[in-house]
Amino acid sequence: MAAASRFAFALALSPALAPALATALLAGPLLLAPSAAMAAEDCRFLEPIGGNGITPIVSKKVGPGKLLGRPNWNTDFVVDQPYRSYRFFFTATSTDPKARYPVSGVMKFTDGSSLQLFQQTLSPPVGRGRQFGPFPVVPGKQASQMNFRIGASNQPGALGFGYRISVQGCR
């Protein structure tokens, strides 16, 4: 974009800032060039299986076991295109300062195999979370889903605690 065009665009956005914007925009294209980190990472949220189609962020509470079957502690996210790496995000929404969350992540492949990426027990403050990864793809394998598991039958203290999770694929 030519300097004159950048100035006209900036002036249309904010006439009061015209002098400062003109100086910055006329300084050259380096100010508008994306950083190498931004260009190298193009991440997008994966859709959860059974999600509402509106948000890729899943909010849940760790529930008790069921009389028949297993509790829904697992959430799968669909890998709909090839990525170079994946990131898992967890945020505690519980108000109990003693909440402990058993957390694990698994990469599932189209051949039916899987790879456990992490398994930890967390006690994050409410509203603060944790990023796991990035985890690179496995050479020779095609990922189909990312599985996030929160809670476990051997950690009954986690029952009733709330959390938000999401997964990103990055190119």
List the helices and strands in order: HHHEEEEEEEEE
Regions with little confidence, pLDDT below 50 for 5+ residues: 1-39
Enumerate how many helices there are, as a single number. 3
* Radius of gyration of CA atoms, rounded to a whole number: 22 Å
Major sheet size, sense and barrel closure: 5 strands, antiparallel
Shape: globular
Q: How many extended strands?
A: 9
What is the terminal-to-terminal distance? 26 Å
Q: Taking all residues together, what is the mean pLDDT?
A: 73
Strand content: 35-45%
Helix fraction bin: 10-25%
Global structural class: mainly beta
Description:
The relative contact order is 0.24. Strands 1, 2, 4, 7 and 9 form a 5-stranded antiparallel β-sheet that branches. This protein has a 4-stranded antiparallel β-sheet with strand order 3-8-5-6, with no helix packed on it. α1 runs antiparallel to α2. The chain has about 170 residues and is mainly β. The longest helix is centred in the first third of the chain and has 11 residues.
